[in-house]
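Handout, tutorial session.
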Amino acid sequence: MVTTFTRAVACAEHYGEVTRLWIKAWHEEEKGNYSQAIKIYKNALKAEKSLNEKHLRDCANTGTLARMKGAQSAYEFIKDKTKNSQNIAKANEISEKTFRKTIDEMDKLRPDLQNSCP
């Protein structure tokens, strides 16, 4: 099974520092540290500016914004709950669903990026 994490590692040559930050944020999400993940995604938005190719910058931006929105949804879900494995798993599910929904919405706004990002 190819996970988002696995795909990001494979794309590291394209996105460089942004990939490292994505992976770091995902690790924080896995632990239920959504506020920390959001901070890291914000750093990834800054790191995108170092990408020379506009298409890659736009792809990275879309992915980062969608991941950050997912982490924000997970944070909202879990902020008033006990951080146990069951709630973290549910929050991660919410994050992933929000990410997918956001990507679908962004694809409608930017069809040139749909299925064209490494």
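The second record follows below. Compare its token runs with those of the first.
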Amino acid sequence: MNKSIIVSFLKITVKSVIIIIFLIILFFQYKAESYLSKQKNTYGIFVKQKRVNYLPFIMFYIDAKVFSPEKYSVYWCNIHLPYEEKQINNDYMFNIEFGTYYVYSFYDVSSLKK
């Protein structure tokens, strides 16, 4: 085969993979923000709070699960904090990963129980 055809094919493949990865990141961020909106509307949590961290959900998830889980353990331990602050008892439903992401996004580590 011609060398230029192979190089051209590889360029197209790399671009396609980058686009697919970007779309996956966008999809999970959309799901995370939709979940946050639902929690805000249902339980009134995070309504007047400003975000402290803006790391995209997929990057947070990969870092928290694969690369440095001990770094994020304080957020996993405080997953119920937003509901406790609003005095919502055990009748709430949440997604553990999204819940931890929101604790990470809206709370400074110094304000959390260790």
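Points raised in discussion: The helical segments are 3-43, 57-67, 73-77, 81-85, 96-106.
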